[in-house]
């Protein structure tokens, strides 16, 4: 992988340069949101680094993907019949929105089982949605077939020099707004965003380190760089960067320009999404929180640095977000489910509830179990879901229950 210093010869030989990114920025500046780059005092104190967040979740379609899509659309020939892409995520909406704004017909091919909300949102931006295949690969193959049949122009979500240059405009804005940034921590899916940002970082007037972040379940770029064969599969919260194969162009640029690629697990991704909502009052999808997840996982790696982190998207299902927040409350001890062994006698629940009252813990739900248990016939299990102030408060509640003679076990979240 790259070192902090890259020679001019190496940079100029790459498919995308800082000049390409600057040209893209001039091209698209009037039609995208110049999102703020803001210092987070709380996250900085938490991680030991000075953290600056780029709020790309504030784009109209709630993701940075608009930049690359628009830069590509603005360079198409005047006689372009229309554009087509395969995507069930942010690329679909970014391309559809700007194509519609420019009067260019757009077709988006999505897997058959794509959630209805994503289909509706993409159609709402004026695109024609074609549902085909059970997987993204099948949808992509069908898109390439329609490209030929209908004379359309295929717009790749990441492996295109115009797309890469457009995504790199994120780095231009961050460095203009916060000149002191000396390290970027950037999510990697296919590699378009980090390729464009590293093209800027390594040609800046001073060395800027670039660290990429992948979900542990989808280490595709990590595999490419290290020659490893770690599996790429599973249900990750960071679905926006769940890519099994990075691009050829992007892999070349990452190998030349990116200093390191780190992996983050699902628990850290969930924690990062929750912290961003609690601390920054901003909704970020799993992929958008990957940079913060890396900072939380590898605190020593970034301590003392001035770090730019891109919150690259905010399109997360509301039910999934609710689940993430509740799981985080459970891990922090503010929400708990306690399994308590009782005697099958009158007044037992009353006596238990009295302990909760004495400890000022709020009971949310009670589940009584007599049948499906290994206890004797006269024994029973009560599972009580409750709210506490913090882990210490929960520990005091458990101790009080044990002191009252009850056997208590916590039901831990995954």
Automatic annotation (TrEMBL):
<dbReference type="GO" id="GO:0006567">
    <property type="term" value="P:L-threonine catabolic process"/>
</dbReference>
<keyword id="KW-0663">Pyridoxal phosphate</keyword>
<dbReference type="InterPro" id="IPR002912">
    <property type="entry name" value="ACT_dom"/>
</dbReference>
<dbReference type="GO" id="GO:0006565">
    <property type="term" value="P:L-serine catabolic process"/>
</dbReference>
<dbReference type="GO" id="GO:0004794">
    <property type="term" value="F:threonine deaminase activity"/>
</dbReference>
<feature type="domain" description="ACT">
    <location>
        <begin position="337"/>
        <end position="414"/>
    </location>
</feature>
<dbReference type="InterPro" id="IPR036052">
    <property type="entry name" value="TrpB-like_PALP_sf"/>
</dbReference>
<dbReference type="InterPro" id="IPR005789">
    <property type="entry name" value="Thr_deHydtase_catblc"/>
</dbReference>
<protein>
    <submittedName>
        <fullName>L-threonine ammonia-lyase</fullName>
    </submittedName>
</protein>
<dbReference type="GO" id="GO:0003941">
    <property type="term" value="F:L-serine ammonia-lyase activity"/>
</dbReference>
<keyword id="KW-0456">Lyase</keyword>
<dbReference type="Pfam" id="PF00291">
    <property type="entry name" value="PALP"/>
</dbReference>
<dbReference type="InterPro" id="IPR050147">
    <property type="entry name" value="Ser/Thr_Dehydratase"/>
</dbReference>
<dbReference type="InterPro" id="IPR001926">
    <property type="entry name" value="TrpB-like_PALP"/>
</dbReference>
<comment type="similarity">
    <text>Belongs to the serine/threonine dehydratase family.</text>
</comment>
<dbReference type="InterPro" id="IPR044561">
    <property type="entry name" value="ACT_ThrD-II-like"/>
</dbReference>
<dbReference type="GO" id="GO:0009097">
    <property type="term" value="P:isoleucine biosynthetic process"/>
</dbReference>
């Amino acid at each position: 992988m790259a070192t902090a210093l890259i020679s001019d010869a190496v940079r100029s030989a790459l498919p995308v340069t800082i000049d390409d990114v600057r040209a893209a920025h001039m091209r698209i500046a009037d039609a995208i949101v110049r999102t703020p780059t803001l210092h987070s005092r709380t996250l900085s104190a938490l991680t030991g680094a000075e953290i600056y967040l780029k709020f790309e979740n504030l784009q109209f379609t709630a993701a940075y993907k608009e930049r690359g899509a628009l830069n590509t659309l603005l360079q198409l020939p005047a006689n372009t019949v229309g554009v087509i892409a395969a995507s069930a995520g942010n690329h679909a909406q970014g391309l559809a929105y700007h194509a519609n704004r420019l009067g260019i017909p757009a077709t988006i091919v999505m897997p058959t089982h794509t959630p209805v909300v994503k289909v509706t949102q993409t159609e709402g931006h004026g695109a024609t949605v074609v549902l085909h295949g059970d997987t993204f690969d099948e949808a992509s193959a069908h898109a390439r077939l329609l490209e030929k049949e209908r004379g359309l122009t295929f717009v790749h979500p990441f492996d295109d020099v115009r797309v890469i240059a457009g995504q790199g405009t994120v780095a231009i804005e961050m460095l203009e707004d916060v000149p002191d940034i000396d390290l970027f921590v950037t999510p990697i899916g296919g590699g378009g965003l980090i390729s464009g940002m590293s093209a800027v970082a390594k040609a800046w007037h001073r060395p800027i380190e670039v660290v990429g972040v992948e979900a542990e379940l989808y280490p595709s770029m990590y595999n490419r760089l290290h020659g490893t064969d770690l599996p790429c599969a599973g249900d990750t919260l960071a679905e926006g960067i769940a890519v099994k194969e990075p691009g050829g162009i992007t892999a070349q640029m990452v190998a030349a320009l990116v200093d390191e690629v780190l992996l983050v697990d699902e628990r850290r991704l969930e924690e990062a999404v929750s912290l961003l909502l609690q601390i920054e009052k901003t909704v970020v999808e799993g992929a958008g929180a990957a940079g913060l997840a890396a900072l939380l996982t590898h605190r020593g790696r970034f301590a003392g640095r001035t770090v730019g982190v891109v919150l690259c998207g905010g399109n997360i299902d509301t039910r999934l977000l609710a689940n993430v927040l509740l799981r985080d409350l459970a891990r922090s001890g503010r929400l708990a489910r306690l399994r308590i062994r009782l005697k099958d006698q009158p007044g037992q629940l009353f006596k238990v509830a009295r302990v909760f009252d004495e400890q000022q813990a709020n009971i949310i739900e009670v589940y009584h179990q007599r049948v499906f248990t290994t206890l004797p016939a006269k024994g029973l299990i009560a599972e009580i879901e409750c709210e506490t102030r913090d882990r210490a408060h929960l520990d005091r509640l458990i101790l009080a229950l044990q002191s009252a003679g009850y056997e208590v076990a916590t039901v831990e979240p995954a």
